[in-house]
Design brief:
With about 325 residues, this protein is α/β, with parallel strands linked by helices. The protein is about 35% helix and about 15% strand. It has 10 helices and 10 strands. It binds NADP nicotinamide-adenine-dinucleotide phosphate. NADP nicotinamide-adenine-dinucleotide phosphate binds near residues 30, 60, 223 and 231.
């Protein structure tokens, strides 16, 4: 069993999720990449230990994380069972269902059948009786929203999850989902949305609903999968997501337009005595609707660098204007 650092809660900030009683760390860790069966279990374990030692209490999963799908939950379950089980009550563990997970008509989407069966599989892989937060991973246009939301409600009432959330729902879908869940009295507290300096859809209406409905927001890919770090400024490192046959990030993303912006942003970060990764995380956390920045990591050192963001989280008006000018440039 692992003995975590006794000072782990001293430097992390914990932000309330909307008006709920739950707090999340300003920086959370996601297990989308680097925790599958294709990765080293020892490396995965070391990243989780470092994160927990630095006050990261929230670990975000989904049924399909791996590869292969399901293996990130199984590996996290192994690490938890072998090393961290005694800290279960100090952790917030989440999972999701919504993308394709198994063959046939019941392994994808937002039906009651899929969500409940998938969470039961996730709990087995994780070795848990319940997850803290369970998400509908995406809106399903072929299932009545009422059915998906009632499934979330049932999941809480049956003891499989403590709270529920939605992810990748647009402003209108968020608004209707909120109405249904409020009517049902479901502890719906959080929206998981992509948000970073290069991707600002959240600011186009969903943020207003989140605020009006007193929800929290956890933002994924706050580093644009590594583009908002100094990693690619001098070429493509061998060990990097771009170089890993990722379907979501590739060489084409490291183009002249990107590099020009990243170099300028990097200069502002340096003037703030920060790395670009730290400035990018401080920037998302500077948005008042953001509860937590959900990062990924391929090493314990990245976690250390990312958590040190909290040493310099504030921006002057001048810095914000300069950043906006760079982001809005062609
Ligand atoms: N709800 C959804 O639909 C959805 C979708 C996507 C993600 N998510 C969640 O959000 C989490 C984070 O997503 P993400 O991995 O795209 O987030 P991200 O934080 O934008 O990117 C993480 C990647 O950036 C690189 N990196 C991180 N810190 C670094 C640093 N300090 N210096 C240099 N490189 C650094 C690493 O890649 P290298 O391998 O190149 O080192 C790392 O794997 C996921 O794990 C998942 O839990 C949710």
């Amino acid at each position: 069993m692992y003995k975590a650092k006794s000072n782990r809660y001293e430097n992390m900030e914990y932000n309330r999720v909307g008006t709920s009683g739950l707090k999340l760390p300003a920086i959370s860790l996601g297990l989308w990449h680097n925790f599958g069966d294709v990765d080293s279990l020892e490396d995965a374990r070391d990243i989780i230990f470092r994160a927990f030692d630095l006050g990261i209490t929230h670990f975000d999963l989904a049924n399909n994380y791996g590869p292969p799908p399901g293996s990130a939950e199984a590996n996290f379950g192994k690490i938890l069972k072998r090393h961290l089980k005694h800290y279960r009550d100090e952790m917030i563990i989440s999972s999701k269902a919504g993308y394709e997970m198994w063959d046939g008509p019941y392994g994808d989407g937002g039906s009651r059948k899929y969500l409940i069966a998938s969470l039961d599989q996730s709990l087995k892989r994780l070795g848990l009786d319940y997850v803290d937060i369970f998400y509908s991973h995406r809106f399903d246009p072929n299932t009545p929203l009422e059915e998906t939301m009632r499934a979330l409600d049932h999941i809480v009432r049956s003891g499989r999850a403590l709270y529920v959330g939605i992810s990748n729902y647009n402003a209108d879908q968020t608004s209707t989902a909120t109405e249904i869940l409020q009517e049902l009295g479901t502890p719906f507290i959080i929206h998981q949305h992509k948000y970073n300096m290069f991707y600002r859809e959240l600011e186009k209406g969903t943020d207003k609903i989140i605020k009006a409905e007193n929800l929290g927001t956890i933002v994924f890919s706050p580093l644009a999968q590594g583009l908002l770090t100094s990693k690619y400024l001098d070429g493509i490192p061998e060990k990097s997501r771009v170089n890993s046959n990722s379907a979501f990030l590739n060489e084409k993303d490291i183009n002249g337009g990107y590099l020009a912006k990243a170099q300028k942003l990097n200069q502002i970060a340096q003037d703030r005595s920060q790395t670009l990764a730290q400035m990018a995380l401080a920037w998302v956390l500077n948005n008042p609707v953001v509860t937590s920045a959900l990062v990924g990591a391929s090493s314990p050192q990245q976690i250390e660098e990312n958590v040190a963001t909290l040493d310099n989280p504030h921006f002057s008006g001048d810095e914000i204007n300069k950043i906006d000018k760079i982001l809005n440039s062609k």
